């Protein structure tokens, strides 16, 4: 999967944001403190009504090594915002996290190392840990959350899913699927949708390193949590009937054995 590359690998970090100014400031500070900083940080302002965009510009002025570029996306929804950021990215690797995430200091370096060790993969996803909420519940709840996400997604995909708060992909892989993803549908999970499209043609892998710090906020509101569940089911069924699990599993099995021919007559 890895393309021939001359010179050091370059990194773009994409952060979709809507009305998360305080959280974004903390996230950008953590990115500025990386042992290996990114060449560019793209903050995608999804029509915020607070000062999220101003917070990103202030970080750009304060931290030259990890300055943030603000890109506007007026189309509602995280899928549109994320895709806008990926389109704007110029790095060899595109890393994504949420505005309320706090990466450990070696996050970017760990991602680069993981891609170097797994040249056959197009995208990687990593672990996470809650950084707010009741301390005794943080570890068991994040395990239960990620376990549920994996066990819901793997039967639908036929492979591991990507997790939007801690994912990375090669830019050439994004360019191959950018016109296929459901960027105009605000009621789907962009990471699960990306998993469908990247996983159809490429290998997705797992990276280690320190877990990404994520917020428990989405699970504190029962209505918001039900909406997340509904979006999960929509993220799967919007790909049917072509991606109905038995059909997708069969194609994956044939592809592993080198017997599947892509439309147009070429083998993957």
Defining key terms:
15% strand; globular; two-stranded parallel sheet; seven-stranded mixed sheet; 9 helices; alpha/beta; 268 residues; single chain
Mean pLDDT: 88
Number of strands: 9
Uncertain spans:
263-268
H/E series, N to C?
EHEHEHEHEEHEHHEEHH
Helicity level: 40-55%
Sketch the major β-sheet.
7 strands, mixed
End-to-end span in angstroms?
11 Å
Sheet-strand content, in percent, reads 15-25%
Number of helices: 9
The rough form would be described as globular
> How big is the Rg?
18 Å
Show the helix and strand layout:
Layout: E1 11-17, H1 21-32, E2 40-45, H2 52-62, E3 68-72, H3 78-88, E4 93-96, H4 107-117, E5 121-125, E6 128-130, H5 135-157, E7 167-170, H6 171-177, H7 190-201, E8 203-206, E9 212-214, H8 222-237, H9 245-256
Parallel strand pairs: 1-2, 1-4, 2-3, 5-8, 6-9
Antiparallel strand pairs: 4-7, 5-7
Helix pairs in contact: 1-2
Structure explained in plain terms:
This protein has 268 residues and is α/β, with parallel strands linked by helices. It is built from 9 helices and 9 strands. The longest helix is centred in the middle third of the chain and has 23 residues, at 135-157. The protein starts with 10 loop residues before the first strand and ends in a 12-residue tail after the last helix.
């Amino acid at each position: 999967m890895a393309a021939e590359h001359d010179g050091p690998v370059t990194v773009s970090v994409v952060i979709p944001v809507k009305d998360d100014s305080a959280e974004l400031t903390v996230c950008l500070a953590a990115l500025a403190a990386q042992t290996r900083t990114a060449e560019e940080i793209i903050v995608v302002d999804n029509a915020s009504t607070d000062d999220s965009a101003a917070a990103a510009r202030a970080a750009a002025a304060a931290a030259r090594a990890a300055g943030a570029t603000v890109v506007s996306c007026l189309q509602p929804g995280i899928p549109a915002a994320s895709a806008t950021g990926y389109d704007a990215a110029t790095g060899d690797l595109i890393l994504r996290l949420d505005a309320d995430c706090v990466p450990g200091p070696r996050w970017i370096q760990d991602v680069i190392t993981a891609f170097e060790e797994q040249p056959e993969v197009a995208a990687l996803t990593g672990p996470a840990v809650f950084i707010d909420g009741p301390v005794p519940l943080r570890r068991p709840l994040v395990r239960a959350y990620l376990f549920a996400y994996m066990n819901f997604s793997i039967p639908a995909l036929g492979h591991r899913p990507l997790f939007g708060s801690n994912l990375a992909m090669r830019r050439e892989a994004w360019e191959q699927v950018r016109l296929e993803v459901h960027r105009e549908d605000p009621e789907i999970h962009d990471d699960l949708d990306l998993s469908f499209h990247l996983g159809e043609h490429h290998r997705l892998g797992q990276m280690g390193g320190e877990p990404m710090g994520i917020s428990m906020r989405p699970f504190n509101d029962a209505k918001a949590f039900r909406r997340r569940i509904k979006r999960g089911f929509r993220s799967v069924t919007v790909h049917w009937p072509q991606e109905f699990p038995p059909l997708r599993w069969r194609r994956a099995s044939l592809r592993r054995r080198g017997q599947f021919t892509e439309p147009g007559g070429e083998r993957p």
